[in-house]
Automatic annotation (TrEMBL):
Species of provenance: Testicularia cyperi
Superkingdom of origin: Eukaryota
Signal sequence segment: none
Protein name in the entry: Protein EFR3
Residue ranges of the region described as Disordered: 545-568, 897-916, 961-1027
Biased composition (Polar residues): 897-908, 981-997
Pfam family of the protein (one): EFR3
A biological-process GO annotation: protein localization to plasma membrane
Family: Belongs to the EFR3 family.
InterPro entries: EFR3, EFR3_HEAT-like_rpt
Ranges of Basic and acidic residues composition bias in the record: 1003-1015
Length: 1077
């Protein structure tokens, strides 16, 4: 009896061979081609019929799958039917790709039935033919899914997970004692990788709603690129081939094309008589698929890939990774640091150029969030992975170097506060140093130096703990994306632990953190110096013009092309970078006078590196100047602030008997660590002041540890090296800023570092430090004299150098690469040459003539030509008053002979803290050791605590007269004013009999011109009347009209620096001097 069939069912049944021939249709298991063509034509013209056709195929597949799981002829017949059903399904998926909504559900069910039937059983291994046909069908399904019209549901994810599990399967051999069947394993994994390749080529993976599929794909790919079956060299070679789009196993090479012209691949099982796939084929297939996933992904997908690679390394993959069946223990890949570094570089090279930075950001973010507790191999591998990316040949266009530096520097500080000898600190320093390898914008290196200098300054301020705490807490939040609840809880725990650690930290942790940051800066400068210094920008390599050719040149030269030859972006040159500006490091100059000997040495090494390799050098001869380069005037104005501060710090370091700043003084810092320099100078220079280093209340230390609290032999040599390098780079700036300090250092070394008469003539640290200080002066002056062709200075300096015994540390420290342990302390007591040098009768006298030094430099034709200043102008600036107090103010004001003002105006208050200069040495004129007006105003003999007198109205009158362009009275220098030590009255007469060409009135005028008021408004409403006079009336005349104050003289001041009022007269409010507010 003939039972009628529906048309779609008849078309489906006709695709199968006759029932008797079905079992023998292998090994091809192909449907009848003519009938399959009619079925396809029918479904293309009637898309709605696909639902019914799919339902018929699904029912038949489920029946055949149950039969195939059995044994005997029924199983063979069921397998044949299932194979043909899969063939029909794949053909419909390929030809009816525009109507997936009708057919995707039954197609996924058919593939799932085939995978279930192919599963291995105790009686037989996995059926590779069924698995391969199912993988081919899935490849077609994934390739033609359009996320805009077809949703990816849980069934698709389940299929993907099944093939991912197949890609890491470890099939057991027939003999369990022999372990895995290597050939079966390679075949099985290659089939699973083929299906994953189809998913990677699918548009569904890159849809915004399908990011949940990446965690399923990545572990299977990562598990197959380990180096347990291939060598690391082979992996590196294969990664380069994959980057060029030509992996060794190219069967699954992914090239996304429009849906209309996209083609599917047939994944086949083992062919009889052929040798099975090798381990290299499996690894190459996995590398090609992972490369395709990264090359076609955007920033979100790339981040998801890297995050899931990290999860796989942690053993937290989304799919289960089976353990070896031969009893071997799974080794964490974190322990294989070299392989991890290769993987990080490979991930970057396979990623599109504009998204490479995401790889580094994700690694650094994970490191910062999870680097707590004891150092582990995971922490080390993450750091080395980041370092390998930063120092590799690949450019990371779009990388935020500031955020990366902030994260890594905060982590370094965190680790220091946990353990000052933490094993992660050296690799962290190397990693941060890698930021100088590639330059992405002109001021990148300068910004890095400024960021590190800012962190160092913050660590020295009173709220250093709070600053470091905040920096470490917020470091991981920069550039971060959404995190899970577990990560948020871990972050909160890390914050709590770090706050407790900061609360219990002391100076040792702070000093070591500063030293680590200094090594980071030194490493960045080293890396930058080795690089080309060229800035790279992204360009369209498919375009025309210089951009494309420039990108091609870079590809050939440095291998910095985009990932893959079909990439749209390449690199082109965009100029050269700017050099580091010394003004960026102004807040760190005080470190040369740090109480920690390791910090002092590290800072000196950093300065040597900076001055030698980085600074934009001043050109002394006009004919050698680079066209368009900055003038000497611009360079001097940019760098002189730092050199002023460095000069003050060198003076303090050389002469101080103890460089420790009391905690009470540290708590008074307001704006900058430079404020500690005047305080150190004061407590070391005043022998009678209560609480000073020489007073009875302060216990003197002994031994090498006590000596390390002040300058050591290596410090004097290192400072000399640094200043010599500075002169070589910035000779004009050095001459203008350092000359007064050198004269003051020579003089003060003789007056302050003198051995008492009761002491041995050849003993005492004072004698040794005096020799060290004068060695610094002589070496620096010798270099200055040589640079500016002043033979008198060179000869005088060489004469002093010849009298100085060796320090035992020559030629001095050299900059190092990478973080090293603090050096051993070599005290003066261990240097035989200095200990044997006695103290002569003229040790207390200056070794050099300051006037001849000033005259020699001022008359130098090289200096005059380079600065375009005449000899008189240079001389007036070089012979200006100098002390640590003035130098700090000059540093903040940027005092130079080219600027308009030497010190900050009243609207810019001084950065120095409240203190009173002592010993009178701060204001001494350097000319022949002649004391200035402040010394003449007070009696030094018998004073236990020295203070300057309180300034009266006459002093204010003089100051206003000196700074006013018009004067109401003549006398006292009212017709001239001084700015930066330069006389604005060219006709002012100088007495030839005065010391150094200056009269006592000139010296007094100069001091008056340098005073600044800390008050916003002057007395008597001067702020409203104007200090320059109103209606042809000067400020001095206004004071006279108002009859403010009484005439006062310095001799009327008592030892306590208070004004003795004349009997029967009312005292006017005193005006505080600039250094006593």
């Amino acid at each position: 009896m003939c039972i009628p069939k529906s048309n779609h069912k008849k078309l489906v049944d006709d695709c199968y061979p006759a029932p008797k021939a079905l079992a023998t249709s292998g090994p091809e298991y192909r449907p009848n081609s003519n009938e399959l063509g009619r079925l396809t034509y029918y479904c293309e013209n009637k898309p709605a019929k696909l639902t019914k056709v799919g339902r018929v195929l699904e029912t038949r597949a489920q029946t055949d799958a149950r039969s195939a799981q059995g044994s005997g002829p029924a199983a063979d017949k069921g397998k044949a039917g299932l194979m043909i059903t899969l063939g029909v399904t794949k053909n419909l998926l390929t030809e009816c790709k525009s109507h997936y909504n009708y057919f995707i559900k039954p197609a996924q069910a058919i593939i799932a039935s085939a995978l279930e039937a192919a599963l291995p059983t105790p009686a037989r291994p996995r059926d590779l033919e069924l698995s391969a046909r199912a993988a081919s069908c899935f490849y077609a399904l994934a390739s033609f899914i359009d996320p805009a019209t077809t949703a990816v549901d849980a069934d698709f994810s389940k299929l993907l997970k099944s093939f991912a599990a197949m890609s890491v399967e470890r099939p057991a051999g027939a003999d369990a004692t022999l372990g895995e069947d290597t050939e079966q394993r390679n075949r099985t994994r290659l089939i699973g990788l083929g299906a994953l390749a189809g998913a990677v080529g699918s548009d569904a993976i890159y849809a915004a709603s399908s990011t949940t599929l990446i965690p399923t794909i990545v572990p299977g790919l990562a598990e197959n690129i380990k180096d347990n079956r291939v060598t690391l060299d082979w992996l590196q070679s294969e990664a380069r081939k994959a980057s060029e789009g030509e992996p060794s196993y190219a069967e699954f090479n992914i090239a996304k094309k429009p849906l209309a012209i996209r083609r599917t691949r047939s994944i086949t099982a083992h062919v009889a008589g052929e040798k099975g796939p090798s381990a290299e084929d499996v690894v190459s297939a996995a590398i090609g698929t992972l490369r395709g996933l990264l090359r076609h992904g955007d920033a979100i997908q790339v981040q998801a890939v890297v995050q899931n690679v990290i999860a796989w390394l942690d053993g937290k993959a989304a799919i289960a990774i089976p353990a070896p069946s031969d009893g071997r223990q799974l080794r964490s890949q974190w322990e294989n640091t070299d392989w991890c570094c290769w993987l990080a570089q490979a991930l970057c090279s396979w990623t599109a150029l504009q998204y490479r930075f995401v790889v580094l950001n994700t690694l650094v973010e994970h490191l910062v969030e999870n680097c707590e507790g004891q150092a582990t191999t995971k922490h080390l591998s993450l750091i080395e992975m980041s370092r390998s990316i930063l120092t590799g040949q690949l450019s990371l266009i779009g990388l935020s170097t500031s955020d990366t530096l902030s994260n890594l520097a905060a982590l370094a500080v965190r680790r220091v506060y946990k353990d000052t000898r933490d094993s992660l600190l050296p690799p962290l320093v190397d990693c941060i140093s890698g930021l100088g390898t590639h330059v992405y914008y002109a001021d990148q290196i300068n910004d890095i130096a400024e960021e590190i200098a800012g962190r160092i300054a913050a660590l020295q301020m009173p709220d250093a703990a709070a600053n470091a705490d905040s920096a470490s807490i917020n470091a991981g939040r920069v550039g971060s994306t959404t995190r899970g609840t577990g990560q948020g809880q871990a972050q909160a725990l890390n914050v709590h632990i770090h706050r407790q650690r900061m609360a219990n930290a002391g100076p040792e942790q702070r000093d070591e953190a500063i030293r680590v940051l200094l090594f980071c800066l030194m490493g960045v400068l080293h890396a930058t110096h080795k690089s080309s210094g060229e800035i790279h920008k992204a360009v369209d390599v498919n375009g025309s013009g210089a951009g494309a050719s420039g990108a091609t040149s870079d590809e050939e030269k440095k291998g910095k092309a985009a990932a893959g030859s079909e990439g749209k972006l390449g690199l082109a040159r965009a100029g050269t970078r700017n050099r580091v500006s010394l003004s960026s490091l102004l807040s760190t100059a005080n470190l040369i006078a740090s109480s920690n000997h390791a910090v002092r040495l590290a800072y000196a090494q950093t300065l040597i590196t900076l001055f030698r390799d980085e600074l934009d050098r001043e050109q002394l001869a006009q004919d050698t100047a680079v066209f368009g380069a900055a003038t000497v005037e611009d360079k001097v104005n940019d760098a002189i602030s730092f050199v002023h501060a460095l000069a003050a710090a060198v003076h303090v370091m050389c002469l101080s008997k103890n460089l420790t700043v009391p905690a009470a003084m540290l708590s008074n810092l307001r704006d900058s660590p430079l404020e500690t320099l005047p305080q150190l100078e004061r407590i070391n220079a005043d022998p009678g002041r209560p609480g000073s280093l020489n007073s009875d209340g302060v216990a003197a230390g002994s031994g090498a540890s006590a000596e390390s609290m002040a300058a050591l032999p290596v410090d004097y040599v290192a400072v000399s090296q640094a200043l010599e390098q500075l002169i070589g780079a910035l000779p004009c700036t050095s001459a203008l800023a350092l000359t007064p300090m050198l004269a003051a250092l020579d003089k003060d070394a003789g007056s302050r570092l003198v051995v008492d008469g009761a002491a041995s003539a050849s003993g005492g640290l004072e004698n040794q430090r005096r020799i060290g200080s004068r060695m610094v002066v002589a070496r620096v002056l010798e270099r200055l004299g040589g640079v500016f062709d002043v033979p008198t200075i060179t000869k005088s300096a060489q004469g002093i150098i010849g009298q100085i015994p060796p320090f035992g540390v020559e030629p001095g420290p050299s900059p190092v690469q990478g973080l090293t342990l603090p050096p051993e302390i070599v005290p003066f007591s261990a240097v035989d040459g200095i200990n044997s040098a006695g103290q002569s009768s003229n040790s207390s006298s200056p070794m050099l003539n300051a006037s001849s030094i000033v005259d020699g430099l001022a008359s130098s034709k090289k200096l005059q030509t380079a600065t375009k200043l005449d000899a008189n102008t240079l001389k007036r600036f070089l012979e200006r008053d100098w002390n640590v107090n003035i130098a700090v103010d000059e540093a903040f004001a940027g005092s130079s002979p080219f600027s308009n003002a030497s010190l900050p105006t009243s609207s810019h208050p001084s950065r120095r803290p409240s203190y009173v200069p002592v010993n009178g040495g701060g204001g001494n004129s350097m000319i022949n050791g002649m004391p200035n007006a402040s010394v003449e105003a007070v009696s030094v003999a018998g004073r236990k605590s020295m203070q300057v007198h309180t300034t009266g109205v006459n002093d204010l009158r003089e100051a206003l007269a000196a700074s006013s362009p018009t004067s109401a009275s003549g006398g006292g220098g009212a017709g001239s004013r001084y700015l930066n030590g330069l006389s604005q009255d060219a006709g002012s007469a100088r007495s030839p009999t005065s010391a150094g060409g200056l009269s006592s009135a000139d010296v007094a005028e100069r001091r008056a011109s340098r005073r600044e008021s800390r008050r916003a408004g002057g007395p008597g409403g001067l702020s409203t009347l104007g200090i320059n006079g109103s209606g042809n009336t000067s400020a001095v005349a206004i004071l006279d009209t108002l009859k403010v104050g009484v005439a006062e003289d310095a001799p009327q001041l008592g030892p306590d620096s208070t004004l003795k009022l004349l009997q029967g007269q009312q005292a006017a409010p005193a005006v505080q001097p600039p250094y006593a507010s």
